[in-house]
Amino acid sequence: RGARDQRAKAKVAAAATAERTGVSFAQGLRMFALYKLLIASALFSFTLIGILVHFVPVLTDAGAMPLKAAGIASLIGIFSIIGRLSTGVLLDRLPGHLVGAGAFLVPIVACVLLLLDGANPLSQGIAAAAIGLTVGSEVDVIAYLVAKHFGLRNFGALYGVLQMALASGTAFGPLAAGTVFDHYGSYAPFLQMTIVLMAVSAIALASLGRPPAIAAGAEPAPLPH
Predict the structure, then answer these.
(1) Do residues 150 and 29 make contact, with C-beta atoms less than 8 angstroms apart?
(2) 117: helix, coil or strand?
(3) Cβ contact 140:104 at 8 Å
(4) Is 31:220 a contact under the CB 8 Å cutoff?
(5) FRET label pair with 10: which of 27, 35, 63, 101, CA 20 to 30 Å apart?
(6) How many CA atoms lie within 13 A of 65 on its CB side?
(7) Phi and psi torsions of 36, nearest 5°
(8) Cα dihedral across residues 60, 192, 177, 165: positive or negative
(9) What is the pTM of this model?
(10) C-alpha span between 29 and 87 (Å, rounded)
(11) How far is CA 36 from each of CA 170, 206, 217, rounded to the nearest angstrom?
């Protein structure tokens, strides 16, 4: 009986190992896809978290009363839930890199509305909804793309690299937004910068293309020299 148990455990372990195919950590660091994801992650968190933290001041700067601005800002939380659910549905049906690129383009609409018609409550509400949709989708998209492009063999380590980029952007984005306001007396320059950086993020994700076939021990395409 003991021998049978050992054989059964060995089979389970072998099956689990077979399912965790993918590149090694060193191979992942040599893949250009990782650096595209790093760019997208860092720029997203830097700009969107900066706006998210300062969203009520952004609206009051545009002329909204503080209480009304806080009410509009609550839409971000509601639409982040919708964004998370809808992103999951879309990832099941469409290429992940295109879903991610589309999600990262949505905040551009919010920034344009705040820049051109920021005093309009309708524009403020649409901007809050757009930001919420993207905030709700970002982590899901990045995690999905890491699994698809690198496999599960070293998913934790490679996703941790991207988490460093997300954390760095989260730390410095709100600081940058506040510094811009202190220097210019307006959030408009930060919103303009967000439009450019989110477009770069979307291009980085769109250029990933479809994920390669990941096989255990497969050698990925190296970085271009």
Answers:
(1) no
(2) helix
(3) no
(4) yes
(5) 27
(6) 3
(7) -65, -40
(8) positive
(9) 0.82
(10) 27
(11) 18, 10, 22
- Pairwise CA distance, residues 26 & 207, whole Å: 22
Here the contacts of 81-90 (C-beta below 8 Å, separation 24 or greater) are 81/136, 82/132, 82/133, 82/136, 83/132, 83/133, 83/134, 83/135, 83/136, 83/137, 84/136, 84/137, 84/140, 86/133, 86/137, 87/136, 87/137, 87/140, 87/141, 88/140
Rg of the chain, C-alpha, whole Å: 21
Q: What are phi and psi of 22, to 5 degrees?
A: 150, -175
Q: Which residue(s) pair with 151 in the sheet?
A: 22
- pLDDT tens digits, the chain, 225 residues: what are they? 544 445 444 444 444 444 568 888 999 899 999 999 999 999 999 999 999 999 999 999 888 888 899 999 999 999 999 999 999 899 999 999 999 999 999 999 999 999 999 889 999 999 999 999 998 787 889 999 999 999 888 999 999 999 999 999 999 999 999 999 999 999 999 999 999 999 999 999 999 988 876 644 444 545 444
- Nearest Cα to 142, choosing from 41, 12, 54? 41
102 in helix, strand or coil? helix
